[in-house]
Design goal:
Oligomer: single chain
Structural class: alpha/beta
Number of domains: 2
Strand content: 5-15%
Largest sheet: 5 strands, parallel
Number of strands: 5
CATH superfamily of the largest domain: Sugar-phosphate isomerase, RpiB/LacA/LacB
Length: about 160
C-alpha cells in the first residue's frame, strides 16, 4: 500500500519516525514534506499535496491512504478535507482510527504530534492503515450524502438551511 504523509514543524520528528517505521513494515511512503524544520512553516500546502497524492493514486486504482500530522492534527485534517473527494479524520486512539475507516471510509488520518508519544501515534496509524471499510449500506448511504452535497450543494430528500 502506498501512504502519503505530510506534516508541519510540530510533527516533523514524528513524521520521520513514521516514514522509517512504516517502510520497515512494507508500506511505500511518499513524503510531501517539509524536508527541514522551520518553526514558521505553513502546513496547508503540505497536507493538501498529501491528500492530492492519495486522490490521484485512488483514481488510478491504487491502494493508497494518507497521514497528516501537526501539533493537534486539527488544522491538518481541515486542510486535507479541502481536497474534493477526500475524507480526512482526526484519530486520537485505536477506536477513532478504526471507525474512521470502518464507518466513514476515510482516506487520510490526522494525528497530533504533540498529543502522543511516537510509539502511540504509530499504533493509532497502524490501526487506521489495517482497517477496511465495512461497506454497510447505512455507511455507504451517508458517505453518498456527503459526496452529493460536496458536488451539488444539496442532498436529495433532506432539507438544508441553504434551501429556499
Amino acid at each position: 500500500m502506498r501512504v502519503h504523509i505530510a506534516t508541519d514543524h510540530a510533527g516533523l520528528d514524528l513524521s520521520r519516525y513514521l516514514v522509517e517505521s512504516l517502510t520497515k513494515l512494507g508500506y511505500e511512503l511518499v513524503d510531501h514534506g517539509p524536508k527541514e524544520f522551520d518553526p514558521l512553516d505553513d502546513y496547508p500546502g503540505f497536507c493538501i499535496n498529501a491528500a492530492l497524492g492519495v486522490r490521484a493514486d485512488r483514481e488510478r486504482g491504487l491502494d493508497s491512504l494518507g497521514i497528516v500530522l501537526g501539533g493537534s492534527g486539527n488544522g491538518e485534517q481541515m486542510a486535507a478535507n479541502k481536497v474534493p473527494g477526500i475524507r480526512a479524520a482526526l484519530a486520537w486512539n485505536h477506536d477513532t482510527a478504526a471507525l474512521a475507516r470502518e464507518h466513514n471510509n476515510a482516506h487520510v488520518v490526522a494525528v497530533g504530534g504533540r498529543q502522543h508519544s511516537v510509539e502511540e501515534a504509530l499504533e493509532i496509524i497502524k490501526v487506521f492503515l489495517a482497517t477496511e471499510f465495512s461497506g454497510e449500506p447505512r455507511h455507504v448511504r451517508r458517505i453518498g450524502q456527503m459526496e452529493e452535497y460536496e458536488n451539488t450543494g444539496r442532498i436529495v430528500g433532506q432539507h438544508l438551511e441553504t434551501d429556499d
